[in-house]
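Comment thread on ticket #2218

A.B. wrote:
> Attaching the input chain for the structure job we discussed in standup.
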Amino acid sequence: MNISFPIWLIIIDYILALIMVILIFKFLLNLFINEGSNFGFFNFFTKITSPILNITYKVTPNFIVQPLIPLYVAWLFFMIRIYFLPLVLGYSYIGKFAFVFEKQIIEQIKSIILNMALYLNYGI
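C.D. wrote:
> Ran it. Output below, let me know if you need it in another format.
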């Protein structure tokens, strides 16, 4: 079943997915790196995520612990992607629009693995 979606909706989904992934990486880095660290990779993620976290400050409950806030905001973006974006197309698209970004990444990984297997087995 091949359903084509409007390009503007796919672009919005990709943007929201990238924001979600960046916030999840920020949460994972918070688990292993101190907040006051001078590690360049961590500072990069802190600079990228701080405007997002400042914008979503009003919808973030006060009882959430500070290191968990990026994960909570990523969950909010996930809910927008899964439930609200398909509603733009109509109720019949709710299960069909899910994980467009993730499906593309998995297809790319599969093609890379298959190409490597062909190269290693046949020298193509």
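A.B. wrote:
> Thanks. Noting for the ticket: The two ends are 32 Å apart (CA to CA).
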